[in-house]
Fold this protein.
Amino acid sequence: MRLILFVISISYVGGILSSCNQSDYPKKPNVLFIAVDDLRPEINSYGALHVKSPNIDRLASEGLLFTRSYCNVPVCGASRASLLTGIKPTKNRFVTFNTYAQEDARGAVSLPQHFKNHGYYTISNGKIFHHQDDIPDSWSESPWRPSGNNGNWRDYVTEVNMKIADSTNDGSAWPYEEVSAHDSVYFDGILAQKSIRDLYRLKKKDQPFFLAVGFLKPHLPFNAPKKYWDLYPMERISLPYNYFRPEHAPDAAIHNFGELRNYYGVPKEGPVSDEMAKTLIRGYYACVSYTDALIGKLLTALDELGLRENTIVIMWGDHGWQLGEHTLWCKHANFNVAMRVPMIISAPGYNGGMKTDALTEYIDIFPTLCELAGLEMPGQLHGKSFVSLMRNPKQSFKDVIYARYINGESIKTDKYLYTEWYNKDGEFYGRMLYDHDDDPDENLNISEMPENRALVDSLSKMLHKEIQSAIKINL
């Protein structure tokens, strides 16, 4: 009799637990992790009314937009390795576009790997890590990237560009292209289609998912369907007003934008023509609108599948991009325009349509997603969760953020951007200081003005404290 009662009791308790698991405990939130290569915060929701970005604007209306978010390294491979491990760069770690996180931070767990280890089904589509085979245990399936167009990784489809590309060592041709065709003519359109199919597949799984979608545009070359070019008539395109070198800027701050010079028709030295400069700007905007349309398709599919209410959506650009400011193109610099980035996050249970001016950096993404998903945080993390800002966007968050590129080390405070350069032997050879209250576009370096000596000394001490804190990792 006692055995029968014991069995009945166990069955009753088991039934209660089963019932609780099904109804009383919320499901783990899914994560839609959208990366956009070379996207600077020149989009409509950031006040750039001339740029057509209705779908990114829609995401901003559903979540929190960060007006002062910064990458930690303004080059793709290093920026992504830092973001995906939550670890700061140093002079020996996360340095160039060719960075492997698994080599520079051996033993570190990646963001998607951490979610996978906690029961998530993880998928990588497009460019997430710079290298597809970086930290392969991050993914439940082999990372996927689109292919085609005769194997040309620069994704040309017009006859003139394909012919030029076939004759060059690196497959480059003109740095832009427009073609009258459907969105799927280019890699990003194929990527969006595949990612939408994955959403349908993931919905059927009894498992939370982490779907990473890495769009390639607006990375060079600026290739997009003609309908997006048509949004930006040439007569409305103008050069940046500060199409000149900043006054008193050190030589270390200025580069030769070699990434752009690799393309056909771009001079090997000196400025590009005004006509080419305007075409580059127009092509960049076209690619932004193209990517925006594809993000819209992805968000619409999420809504139609009924997944939106239990999915965290975060969109970020891996670094900024210069469109002629300070005579520069591309990234690879310690100016604000190369390091400031767009970031928007939307999560279940948090209000939308908000903005925050708080300083944040990309190493903060890893701990934030952990907190939102209720996951423990690995000890390696250098960042700080910004979930508190999602509750109250007006509160203070960080006094300083840290970024670096090659030999340049920078800090951004509420008011200033300060940078120092050191060679491989540790010898100082340049610095710059910009007051973002008085000079937000950084046209006058004030680091050498006698009246700023005390300020420079104070900022230098802050910078070196950040440099030292970046070295330590708890692995």
Remarks:
- Confidence is low (pLDDT under 50) at residues 1-25.
- The chain is about 35% helix and 20% strand.
- The CA atoms of residues 370 and 377 lie 6 Å apart.
- The first helix runs from residue 2 to 24.
